[in-house]
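Researcher: Going back to the complex we discussed earlier. I've cleaned up the inputs and rechecked each line, so this should be the final set. Can you rerun the prediction on the complete assembly and write out the structure?
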Amino acid sequence: MSNDHELRVSKIRHGTVIDHVRAGQALNVLAILGIDGGDGEEVSVGINVPSDRLARKDIVKVEDRELSQDEVDVLSLIAPDASINIVREYEVVEKHRVERPDAVEGVLSCPNPGCITTGGEPVTSQFEVLEDGVRCAYCGTITREEIASLIDT
Amino acid sequence: MRHEHLITSKQLSRADIETVLDHAAAIDADPEIVAGRHAGTLLGLLFFEPSTRTKMSFETAMKRLGGDVVDMGSVDSSSVKKGETLADTVRVIDGYTDALVLRHPKQGAATMASEFVDVPLLNAGDGAGHHPTQTLLDLYTIRENAGLDDLTIGIMGDLKYGRTVHSLAYALTNFDAHQHFISPQSLRLPREVVYDLHQAGDGAGVREHETLEEILPSLDVLYVTRIQRERFPDENEYQQIAGEYQIDLETLSVAGDELTVMHPLPRVDEIASEIDDTEYAAYFEQAHNGVPVRMALLDLLLESNGGDTGE
Ligand SMILES: [Zn+2]
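Model: Rerun complete. Updated structure for the full complex:
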């Protein structure tokens, strides 16, 4: 963690460091978490930072915010290699890898315009998580590469 | 049958299918065995998309079982036109009836609707999704004409939007069937259907083709579906493609004598009328089978849901 690359984004006192995000996905991570800075959150983002494990990676640091398991689950869809570090008083007190859930509810919207979930019905979107994509529980549509674009923000 | 709702043919096991088909065969042989069995039972027909044939065959089936139907009527004259959600519509009609039949233009409509109702709901077609009762009558027709095991079937036409095709393909994975899919490039099976067929362990039994010729001689059944003009932005492109997926007696000259030709009617010009009177044609028989198959299905579903069996 503490090599000089990390210094490009400032250390945080309390909060969460999401490390080893796939390069280019940092802004999608923020979108999933609903973080746009509008609430005054202090957020640092590193994009295309050199990494031993991924060659290039993104890193996101959010001050004063500890991620819930639900949030971590959804993150796993676009950042399957990410590690989540919970920081208190500048120390990493918890560190875990994300795990892909079997399903996610209410966070993605179906890309199929013919799907019932896109038609103003009182229904929460549900997606089954496949090995390499997600699948709408209503219409069955499978999305592989463009998952970030389905994020319901 | 254990299922409360019939949403997709994926939920049907081989045993489920055989139970329905056997019962349909018994009813076909002697309709008296179920006559009046569901007196007092009301079936709600919710057709958000016109389908004279499917609707009438459900209506006939229910009436032949001694029950009756209530019909939402056409979408033009209903509250749907005023913007009511499907969820609200089914919640209301659920309180009137003992079972519901839903046809809707949106994919996944039946799955969603089933979350809002207590009575059994039968999916009679949801957009490009599923049409499991059509599949049961297709399977019944295939079994009568060619048998369901050691079957080589060609499924041709619009495979992308054809819900009858998707439903049939899933159901056939329960049997020893070799499935050949014949379509223009732009109308191939959706990737989720291919994914499911492979998940069902049937990858080896599934082949995709662009022309019928090479595979026709080996087929026991040729299942033809309509290629719709509105799928093509360009009329010329449609004309070019449609012509290649029409069959007439000359096309069938290389087919085996035992070939059975099917079509989930209505047809436009996919099958020349000169085939109608030949031994190949099974499409009118297929349409007629809708009644005994739907009688069997309704009888089994209503019985397992505690309906009055009249005994
Ligand atoms: Zn969908």
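Model: Worth noting: Strands of chain A lie at 15-22, 43-51, 55-63, 83-88, 91-97, 103-105, 126-130, 133-136, 142-143.
Researcher: Good, that matches what I expected from the previous run.
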